[in-house]
């Protein structure tokens, strides 16, 4: 029993020491993003996806009519309105139904929204996905990819999928001139951290 307590104390102290390291990593990751943006200057119609501290990848569409963003990796995805509605990595697929309107959220028309989500591997069947939105910030910001100024609102989405006990928080930076997505941080799996996507 005392050995178990000692192990917990050591793990707690070790995690406290990691806090400055994590802050340092987040600062370094910004320069990693800048490097990827410079390298992708010749790619038109692109988005950048971050999955992990240093894992930035450039994605583009095969044609103007194509809805799927892809590159040479095993990852591809689709953006519907302001969020990722399809995400495939290797053989795992996640499909969201996203019928929620930005106008409805801004006008605070509902206390919560019920949509649906499904995993293809393993097959989950259709699962209820409950979202609560609120605007937590608004103002002006520079785009990550083009360095232009955009008026924005920052939407926070608290979501839950009760059947599989999956819940979390997503964030969406929305351009208020045209309600297009600037960037997002979204959970696409119960087993991994949020992915971050930069579209402007």
Attribute tags:
YmcC-like fold; disordered N terminus; globular; alpha+beta; 200 residues
Structure at a glance:
The chain has 200 residues and is of the alpha+beta class.
Instruction: Tell me roughly what share of residues is in helical segments.
Output: 10-25%
C-alpha Rg (nearest Å): 19 Å
CATH class of the largest domain: Mainly Beta
The mean pLDDT is: 82
CATH overall fold name of the largest domain:
YmcC-like fold
- Tally of separate helices: 2
Order of SSEs: HEEEEEEHEEEEEE
Low-confidence stretches: 3-28
Total domains, how many? 2
Q: Quick one: how many beta strands?
A: 12
SS content category:
alpha+beta
User: CATH superfamily name of the largest domain?
Assistant: YmcC-like
Largest sheet: 12 strands, antiparallel, barrel
Sheet-strand content, in percent, reads 35-45%
N-C termini distance: 54 Å
Q: What is the global morphology?
A: globular
Architecture per CATH nomenclature, i.e. the level-2 architecture of the largest domain: Beta Barrel
Strand order of the largest sheet: 1-2-3-4-5-6-7-8-9-10-11-12
């Amino acid at each position: 029993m005392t050995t178990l307590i000692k192990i917990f104390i050591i793990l707690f102290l070790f995690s406290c020491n990691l806090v400055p390291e994590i802050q340092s990593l987040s600062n370094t990751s910004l320069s990693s993003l800048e490097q990827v943006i410079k390298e992708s200057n010749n790619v038109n119609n692109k988005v950048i996806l971050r999955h992990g501290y240093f894992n930035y990848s450039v994605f583009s569409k095969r044609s103007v009519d194509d809805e799927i963003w892809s590159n040479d990796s095993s990852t591809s995805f689709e953006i519907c309105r302001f969020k990722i509605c399809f995400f495939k990595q290797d053989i795992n697929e996640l499909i969201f139904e996203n019928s929620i309107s930005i106008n409805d959220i801004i006008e605070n028309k509902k206390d919560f929204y019920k949509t649906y989500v499904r995993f293809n591997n393993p097959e989950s069947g259709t699962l209820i996905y409950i979202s609560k939105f609120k605007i937590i910030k608004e103002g002006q910001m520079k785009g990550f990819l083009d360095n232009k100024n955009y008026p924005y609102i920052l939407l926070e989405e608290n979501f839950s999928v009760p059947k599989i006990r999956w819940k979390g928080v997503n964030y969406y930076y929305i351009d208020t001139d045209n309600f297009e997505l600037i960037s997002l941080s979204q959970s696409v799996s119960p087993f991994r951290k949020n992915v971050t996507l930069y579209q402007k």
